Every structure is written in structure tokens, then in C-alpha cells.
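Table S5 (text form). Sequence records supplied for joint modeling of the two-component complex.
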Amino acid sequence: MGWMRAPRTGGLMLLALIVAAIPWFLPNNFYFEMAILVGINAIVAVGLNLLIGYAGQISLGHAGFFGLGGYCSGILVATYGWPPALALLLGAVGVAALAFIIARPILRLKGHYLAMATLGLGIIISIVVSTEDWLTGGPDGMYVPPFTLFGWELYGEAVWYWVIGGLLLLAVWLALNIIDSPVGRALRALHGSEVAAQAAGVDTTRAKVRVFVVSAVFAAVMGSLHAHYAGFVTPTSSGFFHSIELVTMVVLGGMASTFGAVVGAAILTVLPQLLSGFEDYEMVVFGLILMLTMIFMPQGLVPTLARVCKRRDQRASPIPGVDEVDP
Amino acid sequence: MSLLRVEQLNKSFGGVHAVQDLSFEVDPGTIHSVIGPNGAGKTTLFNLVTGVYTPSSGNIFLDDQPTAGRPAHVLARLGMSRTFQNLQICMNMTALENVMVGRHLHLDRRFLPAMLRLPGIVRGDRDCRDKAAELMNFVGTGRYLDSDAASMPYGALKRLEIARALAAEPRLLLLDEPAAGLNANETAEIDVLIQKVAQTGVTVVLVEHDMKLVMNISDHILVLDYGKKLAEGTAEAVRHNPDVIAAYLGAA
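The corresponding C-alpha cell record, covering 579 residues in total, follows.
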């Protein structure tokens, strides 16, 4: 497991390999669709992990940004005939502006209060899109045309798979870059000790606002693409349950682990499908698996597994005269 | 020319006057200690100078720049670094990364270049890593270079905080009870370290309970009692001041 030691390049290469290999094991379109959904969720989770896992700020409203991106694309493209790429861009910029405006007052809150405030924000967005039916089609949602770029239409599961797969690699690369820089260190420092970060010269409010905006933009862009891919957008995409699902992906895969967010997204997207054999008990078994994972691996899957591998590595190549030190 | 100048400083919490009409100056390149019995206002004074509290009235100048009430990250930019009485180490990071955080203001902090990992960021971080390692050796925590901060002993964390504060290359270093919770040996090591720091030209202001440490290393001592200045001067002068003896021993 040598690549664990260099999670940057090694991890990215491994992820690229997996993305490239998966299509060979997908028997039909149903599985392709699942893989695409995994990718979309994973990108949102990677962005959210910057906020929750690294900066230590909870958000229970990110599905709101996801939904806003989707509706922005839907309304501008379907109703007003904008080019999809421009609509996506405007959605991202609009969500960034919204996130920026509300971040300052919201991020002064801590812990439960921050959770409540972001929860409220998500609910407001969700209510607006389901009641303003002249614009959004109401609870039934609205049709979204296919994504086209320079006359080329994104069509077919295979094409979508490679686009989302490429974007996932890009998102992971960007997230790893942010974390492994002065900006990322400042985020982790304010998570570890906010006063210490301030004393070191970190403008913690500014740092929190920036990462909140970035994670919101990740969600908005994927919301747009998901709307185009699915061909429709509904209020559920911006709802409370979707927000919880996103947070669970981050926590299950491992807070402050970019690859953990990807693994968490994969498990939470695929597991319900695999469990469909349990029929009525599906959600019970699903909940049980989540509970057991968090009880036995409170730090999440990837950090826990990484530690196990590291320990086995050390045992395999002991340094003479040095006893193994338990961290 | 004084580096730090406090003028007519007052801070009250409700009816309690924690600091009253306090004025003093700290000369550059010296070790300046603040002592006093429990409740004398030492911590309040420290919090006023480091921007945690805003004074009720009065002024604080760092190099003739008014600093009273300005947020901590702005003070850091003006050349002020500090450590904490109750450790404020980022336990989610390695020891080295903690010190690297201290260099924040000397690094490229722009978001976009960081996100795209432009060569300048990589280079800056490599230099920062070397500087941080150098500082960890300087304070005597070199053996913990690759350790997680959470796995380090208390005494080493105390020194790690000093390394992080020094990483900012401050002109003024404020130490809040650097010897609190340390045994005699570790205190002696801190004693040597603070003098080593002062020799590099950094001005040190120290709030400390350990009299042996204070008397040993201070160029100048300020004694507080009930929020007021009780005495001021060299260790020798303060030690023989009858008011100080009375305050500490409770004599009438």
C-alpha cells in the first residue's frame, strides 16, 4: 500500500484507474446511470468536505445550492432558450454571490446554531422552488433540455460517464491542491483552534466565507449537470433529505479525507440499490450499516483503513531498536 | 523608542475594575515580565494587548500604531505573536504543520493559485517546511518533526507553540504563562529558550507565575495588584520593594 504514503499523486492515479476501469464491468445502462450518479454525488461531497471535514463548519443546506444550480439551468435553458453552458455558469456565479452574502452572518455562528441556520437556508430554497410554480413547475418539477456545447449534444450514458468521470478527477485534484497549500492549512488550523489561527494572522471569517462559497459552487455546478443529465429537476433535489445525505457521505467516508468523500458518496449511492432485495426492510438495513460503521469507525472509512494499512506497513518493515509507538 | 506603549489603560467588567489607569512601556530587545498575585489583572492586560478584549478607555501602541481593539489577525500583521496559557495547538495537524501555520503571513495566500497549485505555491511551501523544521530544532522539538501534534507530550507542545509564534517573525512575542504546568526541569529549559529567543532580537513580554523564572530572565518587571501598577523596575529593585513583598506575603 505504498500509494497511501503519497495520497496526492498515488491516490489520484488510483482514482483515475478506477474511473477508467469501471465501464468494463458495467453490464447495462442501469449500472452506467448508477456510476454517473456516484460521480455527481462524489463531486458535491468533495466540495462539502472542504467545508465540513477540513474547516470544521457544518452545513445542512447544501442541497439548496445543488437545487438552485439545477433550476437555474432548467429555467434559463428551457424557458428562455439560453445556451446550457452559459446557464450553468450563471447558476454557479449566482450561487456564489448568494453564498457569499449569507456566509458572513451565518458563519459567525458555531456548532448547533450554524447547523440550524444552514438548515433554514436549505428549507427556504426548497420551499421557494416548490411554491413558485409559474417559474419552476412547482412540486412536479420541470423539464430540462439536454446539455449542448458548440452544437455538440451530451447524449448517451457512456458520454456522460466520461464527462462526469473527468470532472470528478478535476474536482479531487482541485480539492487536494487547496488542502495542500497555505489556504488549506489555514482552514485546518481554524478547525483545530480558531484563536491560534487568528493569532497566526489568519483572517478566519474570510477563510470560512471563501470555503463556504467554493463548496456551494461545487454543488451548484453539479446540480446544473444533474438536471441536464436527468432531463428534469424537482424540489426533492434541493430538499432537506438530500442535504442530510450529502453530509452523511462526508462523515461516512471520513471527515478531512478527500478520497473518503468519494468513497462515502459511492457507498451511499450504490448501497440502497444493492439492498433492494430486502424490500420493506431496505431502509432499516441501510440505517443499520451506517450506524455500525460510525460506531466501529468513528473517523470514517478511509482514515480508519489508511491507519490500519500504515500500521501493517510499519510492522512489515520494523526499524531496529525502535519500539512501535502507538499514536 | 519603545516598541509597545500602554497609556492610561482601563478595563472594567460591570463594577469590577480589572485594569486601572495602567501605563508602561516596553523597550525593544528586552524581556519584560508582568507579575502579580492571582486576580491582579495580568490575564486581562494580556487579553487587552493581544486584541481579545477592547479597552474601556486608554490606548495601546505598537511602534506608534494604535492597536487597541483591533482583531488578532491584524495585530499579527503588525508584528505581534503570542502563545496561550491553555495550549492552543491544532491537534488535527502534525507538529510541523502547526509551525507552518505560523508562517501564514509570509506565504502566498491567494485562493486561485493555491487551487491550481501553481509552481510558486509549491516552492513557497517547500521553503516554509524548511523554515518550520529549523524552528522546531531551535526550540528543541526536532525529534517530533513528523509526529502528529496529538501524540506529543505537554512540555513539547508548550515549546511547539513558541516555535509557531516565532514562525511569524514577530517583533513582539507575548508569552502567557509559558511555564504553567511544567516541572522544574522543563521550566529551566523554557528559561534558556526564552533567553535564546530574546538574543535573536525579538522583544519578549511575559506573564508568569513562576518567580524563579521571572527573576532569572527579566530585564524589566511590572508588578500589578488589583489592576494597578504596584511597582516597576529591574528584578533586583522589585524583589526588595516593600509594597511588592507586602502584596505577596499579605503583610500590612
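Note: Chain B has a mean pLDDT of 92.
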